[in-house]
Design a protein that fits this description.
Elements: H1 7-18, E1 25-26, H2 27-34, H3 38-51, E2 54-59, E3 62-67, H4 80-92, H5 96-108, H6 113-133, H7 139-157, E4 164-173, H8 179-191, E5 194-201, H9 210-221, E6 228-235, H10 238-255, E7 259-265, E8 277-279, H11 282-296
Parallel strand pairs: 4-5, 4-6, 6-7, 7-8
Antiparallel strand pairs: 1-3, 2-3
């Protein structure tokens, strides 16, 4: 670490130094401009190259460093409001590389996974749905945009996390429209150190045998019943929420207080659901689940 700089500070300074250099710069030039030891700077350049921030080009005996396209530095938490419309703009225009660079740049600039999902990605999911519902985009384009969002979430899921074996969560989507929000929730739980079993779109599993199928799954992923198991069900309809609640509750009743059921959707008063929490807010789900875990420790 150079002169007491943090890695984030070195990253920001490097972006500033290289952003206007079309011909690239040598490691010596970069270390002199940044006032960082040459050996230390070389180590950082190699790390940043792996992250996709910079690339190197060897010309004879000289190694030149270039900033990869689309690199930008942000100041969080102030810049979430700036990233959100930028993400949506890149997304709607189908600029995949810029979308992914924006996510990586945000993480490199100190953004948290959960804040990115709540303030940037989740609103984009809703915007895509609205565009489709209003007839402004077709099925093909909707699927393309949803795929780009899903890949953005996968980038966040690749951040190394040490999971706590006592914090377990199963995430189910009961329909196609809810699958992205379910994926976003899984990513948030992963970021918070939960052991996540993401089942994806389970609409094809709506049949009389699902309760037995689910019981077998729980016996495999939660053998010794350590800590807590939170089961999340996402759906756009009361019918699907009721079905999965009815199918899961028998297993839940056998597991005692350490298994919780959360229904995530626009449940109406007509929905006859037995659950521990009903909400549409991802941040509320995370906070509630953490509180449940703390209370059962």
């Amino acid at each position: 670490m150079g002169k007491g700089y943090s890695e984030e500070e070195i990253r920001e300074k490097l972006i500033s130094v290289l952003k206007d250099s079309e011909s690239g710069m040598s490691g010596v030039e970069i270390s002199e401009k940044m006032k960082v030891n040459r050996v230390t700077m070389t180590k950082y350049l190699k790390v940043f190259a792996v992250e996709g921030l910079v690339r190197q080009k060897n010309i004879g005996n000289i190694t030149l460093w270039f900033l990869e396209p689309g690199q930008e530095s942000f100041n969080f938490p102030d810049d979430y409001f700036k990233v959100a419309p930028q993400f949506l703009d890149y997304l709607i225009k189908g600029n995949e590389d810029q979308v992914y660079s924006l996510i990586r740049n945000s993480i490199h600039s100190g953004a948290t996974v959960n804040r990115l999902i709540i303030e940037v990605i989740s609103p984009a999911i809703e915007s895509v749905k609205s565009l489709f519902d209003e007839g402004k985009i077709g099925t093909a384009e909707q699927n393309l945009l949803r795929t780009i969002i899903s890949k953005s979430l996968q980038i966040l899921n690749q951040i190394p996390i040490v999971a706590d074996s006592k914090k377990n969560v199963v995430v189910i989507s009961a329909d196609f429209q809810s699958s992205l929000l379910a994926e976003a929730a899984s990513t948030m739980f992963h970021s918070d150190g939960w052991r996540v079993s993401h089942l994806g779109d389970m609409s094809s599993a709506i049949d009389v045998l699902f309760d037995l199928d689910f019981q077998k799954l729980v016996s495999k992923i939660w053998k010794q019943k350590p800590g807590v198991l939170v089961v999340l069900v996402f759906s756009q309809t009361d019918e699907a929420l009721n079905f999965f609640a009815d199918s899961i509750n028998p297993t839940k009743s056998k597991s005692g207080k350490r298994m919780k059921l959360v229904l995530c959707g626009n449940a109406t008063k007509k929905a006859k659901t037995e659950s521990d929490l009903v909400t549409q807010k991802l941040d509320e789900i995370i906070q509630w689940s953490q509180t449940v875990y703390q209370n059962l420790k």
